[in-house]
UniProtKB/TrEMBL annotation:
It comes from the Bacteria. InterPro entries: Cyt_P450, Cyt_P450_E_grp-IV, Cyt_P450_sf, Cytochrome_P450_Monoox. Belongs to the cytochrome P450 family. Keywords: Heme, Iron, Metal-binding, Monooxygenase, Oxidoreductase. The lineage of its organism: Bacteria, Bacillati, Actinomycetota, Actinomycetes, Mycobacteriales. The keyword Iron applies. Heme binds at C404. Its cofactor is heme. It comes from Mycolicibacterium arabiense. This is Cytochrome P450.
Length: 455
């Protein structure tokens, strides 16, 4: 690597301030506007440097590797994580690298590929409950039943997260929790991306609403923790891992407050994301009956019994479908990092203090990187084609040390749910478009209507 001081500064994006601000705040498709004007690595100056810290947008595989993939990249948590930390306290998602390492080491065992396999039963059963309900509502007749894919997938993922790692049945509270999540995460992302932020002590109505939402979610996580303390035999692996973890410096256990923060962040990070992946995959299949038939045939080959983690090796095409859904509609449209010193990115200098925005959405839809990028084509993800691909061009779970801890969990859950649903019913999507909101992560702007008929 060259001394960054000898490198040219990342070229400035030529769009006028007003358009840049609009594009930056439009977390998914705004990336393409920024790229069209300034290229795959571009400096977005939305005010004088002394007033607004610089932002560099990176959207090419090599630039992403330089930011996320190098152990000496000096990239840290950024303003987005800082805002979440102020709103919801210390947690795995927001802790600076130094404090984060031991926490991640303590929690990683819960989320390894072999360990998450144990949760498969909860995941399949959560999907089966919906298939049964659709049948009782008319999906057993050829006329079928009309459903909202967004609502169904949210409930499936909430149930499966609750039962798998939190040891609780979240279904009754699912809608309420989801609404609180939406309020809290929109507020934090919105604040993080404003060029000018109101001081934190100012009690704005939006801030008050977000605080109330966080308090309501904290009530749920406090209850989960209390239930596990009262009954240590409760099947709640994440909660027990947090209770058992200690601070490597002091040897003391993590405080109950911090455990509760972590549980909250796992609910936030693990719910909307998986729900969006599953909803988008089902909506896409509802428009591509030939692809859906291949998924159904793969799942039907397993017989009528419950689909388990042990079957995943035989659901290769289903996994390809999910990867294609994650490419076209990445639930995390982007991730941010802070450069803690001058660094080299794709042959340019990124100055210390810069917010580096990794544009996952734009990267996944880049015509220079993907053939025919807007076409839904799961065959892009055959094992042979995956092997030949640049590791940094498909990054739905980010990459490097701070990539998603829930990746194996999410892939297993969505694979089992997709196979369970498509084996039982044929899905016809009734909406031509898949409208989204990007309050923080990308969520369907429901309802996403579909008709389901028995197979
Ligand atoms: C399709 C589903 C998912 C996607 C696309 C996704 C994506 C991501 C991405 C891109 C990051 C990096 C964020 C950043 O650095 O700012 C991340 C981090 C994280 N995710 Fe996920 N995620 C998914 C599911 C899950 C699930 C199911 C869980 C938990 C059960 C989870 C828990 C987390 C946590 C705790 C972090 C912070 C990790 C750390 O810094 O060590 N995610 N996720």
């Amino acid at each position: 690597m060259t001394d960054p001081a000898a490198l040219p500064l990342v070229p400035r994006n030529p769009l006028p301030y007003r358009e840049l601000i609009k594009a930056v705040r439009n977390l998914d498709s705004g990336q393409e506007v920024i790229r069209a004007a300034g290229g795959r690595i571009t400096r977005v100056a939305i005010g004088p440097k002394w007033l607004v810290p610089p932002l560099v947008s990176v959207m090419s595989p090599s630039a992403v590797r330089d930011v996320l993939g190098r152990s000496d990249a000096f990239s840290e948590r950024c303003i987005v994580h800082e805002e979440v930390r102020h709103m919801a306290g210390d947690s795995l998602f927001v802790l600076p690298n130094e404090q984060w390492r031991p926490r991640r080491r303590a929690l990683q065992p819960v989320f390894t590929r072999p360990h998450v396999k144990a949760f498969g039963g909860h995941m399949s059963r959560a999907a089966q409950v919906f298939v049964d309900e659709w049948r009782s509502r008319g999906a057993a007749t050829t006329a079928g039943a009309d459903i909202d894919l967004d609502l169904a997938c949210r409930r499936i993922t909430m149930q499966s997260l609750g039962r798998s790692v939190l040891g609780i049945d979240l279904n009754e509270r699912a809608d309420e929790i989801a609404a609180h999540m939406h309020v809290a995460s929109s507020y934090t992302a919105d604040r993080a991306l404003r060029p000018f932020r109101a001081p934190r002590w100012l009690p704005t109505p939006a801030r008050r609403r977000a605080r109330i939402a966080v308090a309501a979610m904290r009530k749920v996580t406090d209850d989960i923790l209390a239930a596990c303390r009262a009954d240590p035999s409760r099947d709640a692996p994440l909660v027990h891992a947090l209770i058992a973890a200690t601070d490597p410096e002091t040897g003391r256990p993590i405080s109950d407050d911090d455990i509760s923060n972590d549980l909250l962040i796992f609910m936030l990070a693990g719910h909307d994301t998986t729900a969006t992946a599953l909803t988008y995959a089902l909506w896409s299949l509802g428009h591509h009956q030939d692809v859906q038939d291949r998924v159904a045939a793969e799942a039907a080959a397993l017989g009528d019994r419950e689909i388990t983690s042990a079957d995943v090796g035989r659901l290769g095409y289903t996994v390809q479908v999910l990867r294609e859904a994650l490419r076209l509609c990445p639930p995390a449209a982007g991730v941010g990092r802070l450069a803690t010193r001058d660094i080299e990115v794709d042959g340019y200098r990124v100055e210390k203090g810069t917010l580096v925005a990794v544009g996952i959405y734009a990267l996944h839809r880049d015509p220079e990187v993907w053939d025919d990028p807007l076409t839904f084509d799961p065959d892009r993800f055959t094992p042979e084609r995956m092997k030949k691909r640049n590791r940094w061009q498909f990054i739905p779970f980010a990459g490097g040390a701070r990539s998603c801890i829930g990746e194996h969990f999410a892939m297993l859950e969505t694979t089992l749910a997709l196979a369970t649903i498509v084996r039982a019913v044929r899905v016809h999507s009734l909406d031509a478009e898949f409208p989204v909101d990007v309050p923080f992560t990308t969520v369907a702007k429901g309802p996403i209507r579909a008709r389901v008929q028995p197979r």
